[in-house]
Amino acid sequence: MLNDGIPAIDAWCNPFTELGIRKIFTENPEVAQVMGEQWGRHDNMRWYTADDFVAYMDSNNVSRVCVPSLKMMRYRTREMLADIPEEHIAELVEAHPDRIVGMAGINPISGMEGLRALERAVREYGFKAAHVHPFGFGIPINEREWWPFYAKCAELDIPIVFQVGHSAEFMPSAMGRPLLLDDIAIYFPELRLVGGHTGWPWTEELIALAWKHPNVYIAVSGHAPQYWDPKLVRFLDARRRGIGKVMWGTDHPLILHEESLGQIDEMELKPEARRALLHDTAVKVFKLDDPLLEPVAVGQQEVGQ
Fold first, then answer.
1. How far apart are the first and last CA of the chain?
2. Which of 11, 47, 181, 229 could make a disulfide contact with 203, Cβ separation 3.0–4.6 Å?
3. DSSP 13
4. CB distance 105 to 84 below 8 Å
5. CB 247 within 8 A of CB 217
6. What is the DSSP string of 250-285?
7. Are 210 and 242 in contact (CB under 8 A)?
């Protein structure tokens, strides 16, 4: 059975609707050029209704997907490349509250209006996380513009999923270097921080921070498992080190669910590492009511609820 029967949770699945696919992918020249012309993934850029996407999830034994109201700025022109309304994601969450998890995208220059939108998304729309795509804003993730949003997320007790590592778009990758999470984790020990996209090409930095800080986690979004850094695979499979610190993600439609899960099935992971990767770590970090089995105690950590 796919995933060894584990209902997988995707920590980062882009908006799959017509609006989401158009605004983030097909009408976004920087993303379309990279995904289509460079990586040959034109065929992935199809859109779904909420009902159709849930049926697609069912066919791949995917329990939940975490979907951001993505905020992405174009660095060269200082215009928004993607600005998905929270209300659009809220409609998806309302249609399938047990399958779709909302993540509120953060625009660091939106001021109090942005802070109010973040709080509204959580308190009124039921979003369970925030999301940061920092590169086009040209503001490193440890700079002051972001800090009011981090404080609000700590107050609301929701995690933040960051894209860290390089930017495939024409944006300065240094804005999301994983080492910058160190400052945030030190100042906000109660704030759960998820470094997405494996942190590549600074994957070892992200591993070091996840090992160091109890509140730092890794999401393997944006990279097919066959390309994961071997050090990351060893970490996520290691008792008392990485089990319970790494969660699955796709960055769909960049990586299709069946593609990623099929490659994970070919890995010789410990059973508890596979379960933590696909399910339990996300349940813990996002505080999801999605029980699988009794929690699994691993070393000094407990994964699951």
1. 24
2. 229
3. B
4. yes
5. yes
6. --BTSS-HHHHHHHHHTS---HHHHHIIIIIHHHHH
7. yes
- Which tokens is 27 given? 């009408």
Cβ atoms 8, 261 nearer than 8 A: yes
CA gap 74, 137 in Å, rounded: 7
Query: Minimal CA–CA distance to 251: which of 288, 208, 285, 200?
Result: 200
Distances (CA, A) of 277 to 19, 98, 261, 281: 30, 20, 11, 6
| Matching residue, tokens 């992935």 | 44
Residue whose pair of structure tokens reads 């691993």 in the numeric block:
298
Task: Please name the residues in contact with 191: beta carbons below 8 A apart, sequence gap of 6 or more.
Answer: 150, 153, 154, 159, 160, 184, 185, 215
Please give the structure tokens belonging to residue 40.
């040959």
Q: What is the distance between the alpha carbons of residues 304 and 301, in angstroms, rounded to a whole number? A: 10
Please name each of the domains of the chain with its CATH number: 2-303 (3.20.20.140)
Of 191, 194, 196, 176, the residue nearest 249 (C-alpha): 196
Q: Is 162 helix (H, G, I), strand (E, B) or coil?
A: strand
Q: For residue range 71-120, list pLDDT tens digits in order.
A: 999 999 999 989 999 999 999 999 999 999 999 999 999 999 999 999 99
Q: How far is CA 237 from the centre of its chain?
A: 20
Say which amino acid occupies 147.
W
Neighbours of 279 (CB within 10 A): 26
φ/ψ region of 12 (left if φ > 0, alpha if ψ in -120 to 50, else beta) reads beta
- Six-digit token pair at 287? 């505080």
Q: What is the pLDDT of residues 198-219, one digit of tens each?
A: 999 999 999 999 999 999 999 9
How many helices, marked H, and strands, marked E, lie in the chain? 12, 12
Structure tokens at 55: 């049926």
Could you tell me which of 160, 139, 133, 109 has the C-alpha nearest to residue 14? 133
Task: Give the length of the chain.
Answer: 305
